[in-house]
Design brief:
Radius of gyration: 20 Å
Distance between the termini: 55 Å
Helix content: 55-70%
Number of domains: 2
Strand content: under 5%
Shape: elongated
Number of helices: 4
Length: about 100
Amino acid sequence: MNIRNISFYRFDIVLPQLFIASFMTASIFAAIPYKTEVTKFKKRAMRAELKAQSMTLKLQDSPPATIAQLRRRTDHDVVSMTAVLQSHGYYDGEI
């Protein structure tokens, strides 16, 4: 057997185990409810743009199973909302 075949077989064995582990983990933990608000913006257009960019708002009806998933959503929001704020000239905005 060459190395390529060994690597392929090892991948075949590990993948189902990872799938089963992730399925069991998601079903054991309860969903983590959260609430997201976009506040302190008088300009409706900018508030609407920030809401459109927010992954936490878009996915609020399907709460994440873990804190890590929620953190990924908020990390995405920080980057995208910072870009929106900067495009409107707000370079000192806080998220």
